[in-house]
Amino acid sequence: MALKEDNRAGGASGGGKAIADAKVEDAFRTIIKWIGEDPNRDGLIETPDRMVRAYREYFAGYDEDPEEVLRKTFTEVDGYDEMIVLRGVTFESHCEHHIAPIIGRVWIGYIPNKRVVGISKLARVVEIFSKRLQIQERLTAQIANTVDEVLKPSGVAVVVKAAHHCMIDRGVRKRGADLVTSRMLGVFRDLPETRHEFLTLVNADTTE
Predict the structure, then answer these.
(1) Which of 2, 81, 90, 181 could form a disulfide with 140 if both were Cys (CB 3.0 to 4.6 A apart)?
(2) Based on the domain organization, do 155 and 194 belong to the same domain?
């Protein structure tokens, strides 16, 4: 109990601004009232606390540094300089316009320049950026740019395919549509054959 009380007093530090959890719970109670519900009935009385914990998980990416995740690399690769592709990394994010879920998959390819990174680190970069308010175009660019800046490979390619619940559960309500974005850097942008090889692996993964 003491731990929870300390947490409520200190609050989350996402974005560098400490706000007490109790204030956030009050905000959620206001929203519950606004939709026409009673936040004090048995089924909802603990919901504001649950929402605080859920939102802390949804947006945990603000408290992590994706560049630091990629710092540890391996150089004993016996000269390996061919394409490395991590396919179909699942993610869940929230759009910054409606805070509605974005659910999709990411394909990351790079051609190493004397060093490689553990594949779980690439997945972790996806996780960190997706656990922030996002638009898919920026998410795609952030993943590619970070891999490029830290690893300095010969090229980086990222493809993201996702369903956006801001257009599934509201608005135009178009279930089944997905958005595809890509970012190609280095040889993936300059060499059509390299880009084609990567996209072939992406498309093969989506049809398997």
Answers:
(1) 181
(2) yes
What's the total number of domains in the chain? 2
- 98 phi, psi to nearest 5 deg: -130, 0
Domain hosting residue 9, numbered range:
2-58
Tokens 């498309």: give the residue: 203
Q: Which secondary-structure segment (H or E) carries 40?
A: none
CA pair distance 67, 19, nearest whole angstrom: 26
The CA distance from 32 to 126, in Å, is: 32
Task: Copy the structure tokens of residue 55.
Answer: 């939102």
84 and 33 in one domain?
no
Q: What CATH number is associated with residue 39?
A: 1.10.286.10
Residues marked as catalytic: 95-98, 136, 164, 166
Q: Minimal CA–CA distance to 91: which of 128, 144, 50? A: 128
Q: Are residues 107 and 203 in the same domain?
A: yes
Q: What digits encode the pLDDT tens for the residues 62-89?
A: 999 999 999 999 998 898 999 999 999 9
Pairing mode, if any, of strands 84-95 and 133-134? parallel
Q: Please indicate, yes or no, if residue 64 is contained in any of the structural domains.
A: no
pTM of the model: 0.89
